[in-house]
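Q: Can I see a sequence and its folded structure?
A: Here is a first one.
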Amino acid sequence: MQKSAVTIGNFDGVHVAHRELFRCVIEAARENGLRPLVLTFDPHPASVVKPDKAPRLLTTMEERRALIREAGIEDVVVLPFAAEIARLSPQEFVERVLIERLQARIVVVGDNFHFGHRQSGDTKTLTELGQRFGFETRIVGAVKRRGHMVSSSSVRRLVEAGNVALAARLLERPYSLTGDVVPGEGVGSKQTVPTLNLQTRAEVLPARGVYITRTRDLDDGRRWNSITNVGYRPTFDGHTLSIETFLLQPLKGPSPKHIQVEFCRRVRDERKFDSPEELKAQILRDVGRAQAFFRRLAGWIPAR
């Protein structure tokens, strides 16, 4: 491999603090004629060493790679994480992975970085090993947005609490769910409004409620403003969680089969109405709030 500038991490969610690490790697590589590179792991190390405490993931590996490349880094090395990797001491990890495999000359990490067996290595350890093995260690401080320390766990908490607007600030994009459009129970098209029903494998879902969203057809790129309900459809005595999206623009052409739903802002809690007619009237009021949102903030969500 070409000599490289490397950053190391799980990078789940690929939030603004991760992007700062990528920016520093790209800058270091450009200044020193190195190859900018990201080293990440699959599966998440916690699922191997502490499976009962492994976090629910914000992004799949495929999504993570795409987002890292969007941030400007083409080379993403995914290290399969298994027990033998977990047993490597900090020095063994540096020798076998950073030096022998990646030819690291500059290593950029966050100030809370830990590595090696039982997370025994930290930034001080990495700096000392860099002096011994001939690479420079650069430490990037924590990043804050709106008074919140940016981390994957903070994004996870915000999304699960329904605060998708603040989560978007930490991610620098709306949080999204992807999946297949599946048949619903036919209630919406007959008694309220027709919706697209999303079946997703995502591990982190927004709290139950109604959200202003953007929906994209993953097959042909069509996009619509929309509103989305995450919940159990209590008006119809539902018992299974559903994610139902109503498009604000007419659906021209075939119905999408695979969609991405971006969550922009929470509108209200999900609640039970006395009749389908009352629910339909509330949906139309929600539509009005969503249309006002998109008029005010036109251009806030970039087309990707």
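Q: Show me another, different protein.
A: A second, unrelated one:
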Amino acid sequence: MPLRLLVAFILLAASSGLGLIAYKALNPQPVNAAAPTMVRIFVARAPTPAGTLLKQEDMRERAVAPGEVPRGAVLATEDGRAELQGAMARRFFGAGEIILADDVLRPRDRGFLAAVLRPGLRAVAIGVDANTGAAGLIFPGDFVDVILTQSFGAQEASAGRRMAAETVLAGVRVIAVDQQITQGAPVSAAATGTPSSRVARTVTLEVTPEQAERLALAERLGRLTLALRAIDAPAEGEEPRPTTTVFGADVSPALNRSEPNAAHRMRVIQGSTSGEVVFR
């Protein structure tokens, strides 16, 4: 190739490269912006009436863009879940509606118990442990039965009737769990653990004045156990009838056979002397 043509070819290639660079500088290509990080917040899972004590199954998470998060939305974190657990809905929530902090009354807020209680009802707290309190699986808003278990002495009843259990209250609503919650102490996953790992010490029930008296007396008579009811709790004002008394012999027939010749005894007092009469 003649030297003149080679030089011309090199100059042409160089000018083309410079032209392409100048075109890109004057016409920059749009840069693909990174997708914004989504924020997860809590919304109502289903239609929720005002006055409902929120449970975990009443809410779900939704991912929204940062610019679409309304003011007061509760972030879907462990602390946020603890904030809503047991809180009372101030207004009706539609399915999928965002739950705002101002739309709920939390257990630590002043006047929480008074706002939760229905007209004419009372709040009564009872002590529970891992066995009597359903192993920490009872939460505000649940409905429970209260079972009384008591024992009698050998002189008061036969072996088969020395232990007895009966339902003293049926279908009562739990309005608070643990004294710290009702007193207003902060509730966070870091401080108290997850709901499944916490075991309640105190459960506050919503009862009528007559039921409050029965509950106070039952707590003195023996051991109280809470039995969690199904989610289809009785309608307002439709309290189920308490069950009959169950004795030890009803559970274990062996207790009946332990005293095959059990006799009735009567203590007889005559003046300054006393004796026992056995009827066989």
